[in-house]
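Async update (no meeting this week)

Hi team, since we skipped the sync, here's where things stand on the single-chain job. The sequence we agreed to prioritize is pasted below, unchanged from the tracker. I ran it this morning and attached the output directly underneath so nobody has to dig for it. Comments welcome in thread, and please keep replies under the output.
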Amino acid sequence: MAEEGPRPPHPSQARGEPRAGADRRARAGRPSRPDRGLGWTGRRFEVEVGPVAHGGHCVARHEGRVVFVRHALPGERVVVEVTEDRQPGYCRADAVEVLVASDDRVERRCPYSGPGRCGGCDWQHVSPAGQHRLKAAVVREQLDRLAGLGEDPVVADLVVEELPGGPLRWRSRARFAVDRSGTPGLRRHRSHDVVPLDDCPITLEPAAAVVLGRRWPGAGAVDVAIDSTGAVTTTRLDRRGTPTSSRVLRPGGDLPEEPSARAARSAGGRDWEVEGTGFWQVHRAAADALVAAVAGFAGVAPGETVLDLYAGAGLFGGALAPAVGPSGRVVCVEADAGACAAAEANLAGLPQAEVWQGEVDAEGLAELLGELDGAPSVVVLDPPRAGAGAAVSGVLAGSGARAVVYVACDPAALARDVAAFAGAGWRLAGLRGFDAFPMTAHVECVALLVPGEPGAADAAPSSIMRA
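Output:
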């Protein structure tokens, strides 16, 4: 196909609601950052699609530039339309026509998915098995590029595991955007424009129906969560992202205006209480899978001490407390006051477990380790998407623990922290991946880190300094 010139704006470029960031810059009198691209936005051309990259796109090249392509698969030949061109070295594009398709390509199961449409899912066009292979490839690539572990058998053998329930109706919590008219939906990829939705096929149907079946005048977004009893909590947020009101719809009736409502969750063979809007694994089967993986890697014995960092409502600490027994100790550390209150309630029947409120940073962690009666046996951490960071990783590497079990929702952050541990002489001894976010590029990992043999730190990338 011959290259075409500029075309009418792609839907993702169409004029819609003003971008919030641009509004803030204008109000503050600051000029917006000028684009440094080559003016390719709107151009169409053919490319051979290369490997998948972190973030849900694939890598292609055209006229010496990198093209990050969405809605494509490795090995395909496609026609792309450039949607964003702001840097001289690369641009972003959508695959708008498939000339040679991958065997992993399937029909999208969501009518709102596709180029220029809803940005909620990355891989509606990919078979479930294909998604698992792509996610494993991304994790391996990040651990190779950022931690130098491309040849490590633990990394090379990684398989991303499917969770029960299939690729649809798995999401128990979601945030829907609301446009100026009060219509709910999801935003286009890299845009503030809201795509109105009648349904979201990856969200559990009762939760999606409560939000998408009505209008929300004056709201900027609506959070919705459904718990293990079937109760649906909706929380309105204003356009600054501040919660303004909550409502709980239970199977037995509607209880209005409960801003501090609690939600019931089930995992590891027991029930848990969390805040209605508090953190819990989004996939309804993920908590069970992660608890089993963490327990398997930790191998906790009676009498041992476990640190559970970024503990949330106490899921991992509570699951490991019975294994350490009455002679052991579990210390859960969490910054959020509401999550700490939930953790204290969840762990009330386990005298060997305690909850400490505070940020997980290098200074506070060093103080905590100094107050323990001896070194911890095992450290479990489930940090936010940005990861624990080099400073915290360095403190943990010197803690005297026999093992660190790291739960990660971002493979790049995991790889950076694994590199920090490697720089202190630790090694990656185990790795599991879980497809806790079907139809998206996100993947959940559980890694086991242990002190390495003398000299193991010499294998770390030269850019990583010893802790």
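Quick observations from my side:
The chain is about 20% helix and 30% strand.
The chain has three domains: 11-102, 137-164+266-459, 173-265.
Reply here if anything looks off.
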